[in-house]
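Record O-antigen ligase family protein, 503 aa.
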Amino acid sequence: MIFTDSPIRSTFGWESPNEAAIFFATLVPFLLTGMLWARKIRIAKIKYPLLTCLMLGEALLYLSLARTGSRSGALALVVGSGFYSLLLWRAHALSPKLWAANALARILLFGVVALFTVTGSRFSPEALLNDRSGEIRLDLWKAGLKMLALEPWTGWGVGQSGLQYMHWFQPPDDPKRVAGTIQSFLHIGVERGIPALWLFTTTVLLLPILSFLGIRRLSPREKSAKSIENSDPSFARRHSEDRAGTRRATANRPALLLASVGAVGAIWFVGNLFSTQWIIPKLWIVPSLSLAFAMILLLFRNRWRVIVISLGTAALVSGVLCAVAFQVGSRIRHSPEIAVEGDWIEILQGAPAESDTHSKQRIVLPDPDILGRDYGRELRKFFAEEEFPSTIVPRYENFTIPTRPYETVIAMGKYVNNALALPAPEILLFHPTVRPDPEIVASPPEGTSVTLFLPDLDVSGYEDLWRKAARREGWKITSTGWTGLDLRTQWPDIALMPVESAE
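=>
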């Protein structure tokens, strides 16, 4: 019931307050439409109790949403209410003045409710100044755009957005763990590529666009008050004119329902813009049913052209947004510069390599047991102190090593045998966790200088075997102290210090 990050933010059974807030917000438009329907009921014994229940339901949803303390949910509700009022105006259900008054009334009502709950406190100037969630989101989104531009077609892999961000983009002194980009669009684009991003964005945009274009097709043409009075003398007695005297609430029930589902689409779009909501299956229920209802309604009214035009418009707008995101990401500068080479990350620093790029490369084979799961962040500390024109590091745990000449090979843990098979003038081996391969150890590439870094505490059980092999082959041996396998307490100093054989 209570969100773990704050004891006063309610979740109402959802995994996070933001999920609960978006769910509550998507229910509000249907209550508003229900109230518009109830106002047309002529039987007072039914009309007023029903209106009272609907208004209490609306207030309860506002209170529940405010209890979540979700700023993204509050913003989604405000945008959805404004879009709902806009659709009512397009359906001729409200005059411009009533349209503005309706939107303002809903915003003020929620504002009053939020003022006395946790949501109001999270919008206070002091909370906004002290809360780093906005700053964190901006950092993640900036890195996400860069990652999208680096791997636009296939993405970085499902579940990799947070991990790769921590490896290559998170500030090295920031220990905070990140699960993703905290934004559905970038989450999909970074992990699955622009084609998946385009498809998702088209789907999300389809509902508000379909409602915006289709609601006029379901509404009767607007008539002036004077023309209606001339054709129906009893009009003035049965209907009160608005202040402008030019518009009537002529929208029918299907049009009002389409306004509701359009508002749901706007809320769903904003909710995904500020949080990763798309991965929650239950949150898809209301938007999916709304989209299905809108399409069935338009097809039933023989408005299939509206569906085709809306789908084309959503696809076009989605394509433009994806192209803009790619261009923005391509122009973002990151230090050090990063490139993607298959399953490998290439770190570009200092002067560009000469014509034979690969022979000037440094390859690093990190082991999570030695540098931790966030080994990329630890390696960047090393790269910041010792620049090299081109360094490649594997993106994933399972990788195939390109067998080509390198300037330097740095290997850790279980990859030390692999390193000895690579042609390079210098090979650095840190904390082996596998048995030395006799064939590889006995025949390293000619002209290779090998340095072995071993802890004083034999944790893996293979240190003694590697020490004997190093003595036999004439390698340099350097002690890393009583560190055990984990080298982070000595990193990157141990890799930067001049190598002198300890034996």
